[in-house]
Amino acid sequence: MNMGDEITVHQVEIPIEELSAALREQLVIGKMGECRYCHEEEWIYRLEAPCRCDGSLKYAHRRCISHWCNVKRSIRCEICREVFSPNFAVTEPPPLDEDDIPVRHFLASMIIRDAYYLTPPKEDMCSRIMYLAVVFITVPLYVFYWILACRGQQELDRIDREREREMEREREM
């Protein structure tokens, strides 16, 4: 710029809608959210909102959503029943070669799978309490009942044997 050059001032007009959208984007980038599956806190711009759920259930990591879809074998949200978008695919598990799986590993995996599906969800506290009550109160009582029943049966068997012996003694006489 040299002496004597004219300087003109230009006014830049930015529509209010664009300005407020840019400000909203800045706010979103600065916010933290929590993944609904792994419960890790993360910047919202790194999370996805795959369905209509709102609040603390709104955001999730893409890898967590994919894992959830593969575990549940469904691409629907379990809460709002909407298909996840962008469309997440359910990948087929790799085929198992039954010759390579020892019986004990097969049984262990079946037990673990059944335990996973039979335990109540962690969010449902009432179901969890009932489950614990059944496991730690009812089952031991049931086992104790059968132990007593077996002891009672043993006592009855002992009495029957004594009666038979007495009857044999009477016959011998």
Individual helix count: 4
Work out the strand percent.
Answer: under 5%
Order of neighbouring strands in the sheet with most strands: 1-2
CATH architecture of the largest domain: 2-Layer Sandwich
Summarize the main sheet. Answer: 2 strands, antiparallel
The ordered string of helix (H) and strand (E) elements is: HEEHHH
Oligomer: single chain
Helix content: 40-55%
Basic shape: rod-shaped
Averaged pLDDT: 73
Strand element count: 2
CATH topology of the largest domain: Herpes Virus-1
CATH superfamily of the largest domain: Zinc/RING finger domain, C3HC4 (zinc finger)
End-to-end gap = 141 Å
Query: What number of domains?
Result: 2
- Judged by helices, strands and strand pairing, the structural class is mainly alpha
- Catalogue the unreliable spans: none
Radius of gyration: 35 Å
Determine and state the CATH class of the largest domain: Alpha Beta
